[in-house]
Design goal:
Radius of gyration: 17 Å
Number of strands: 4
Oligomer: single chain
Largest sheet: 4 strands, antiparallel
Strand order of the largest sheet: 1-2-3-4
Distance between the termini: 48 Å
Order of helices and strands: HHHEEEE
Low-confidence stretches: none
Number of helices: 3
Structural class: alpha+beta
Strand content: 15-25%
Helix content: 40-55%
């Protein structure tokens, strides 16, 4: 029982120190938008690369303005509110982000 309690405490401490910041979420959203516009790693079109970089820059700044964060110390919930759409929610835990809805974010 004592080992289990120590394990839980260690996991909680690790999650606390790896709770992602808003800046990390902004970087994640920029990379996600760029990947969607560029069409993935197999695409090599210069126009798509330029548009992807531009979309990531603009989208990243817009996402920063439209994002709210609920900090629960061990993890965070990020909510992106876009016009006329349901807000997109992401779980930030362990320096990673997971969408909390089945619908594709940032259409």
């Amino acid at each position: 029982m004592k080992k289990f309690l120590v394990f839980i405490i260690v996991v909680a401490v690790v999650l606390f120190f790896t709770n992602p910041t808003e800046e990390e979420f902004n970087i994640y959203s920029e990379e996600y938008i760029a990947t969607r516009v560029k069409g993935g790693k197999n695409e090599s079109s210069k126009i798509k690369n330029i548009l992807g970089d531009l979309a990531a820059e603009v989208g990243g700044k817009l996402t920063k303005e439209l994002t709210s964060k609920e900090d629960y110390y061990l993890f965070s919930i990020y909510e992106v509110k876009l016009d006329k759409q349901e807000p997109y929610k992401f779980l930030g835990i362990g320096k990673n982000f997971l969408p909390l809805q089945s619908e594709e974010p940032f259409k």
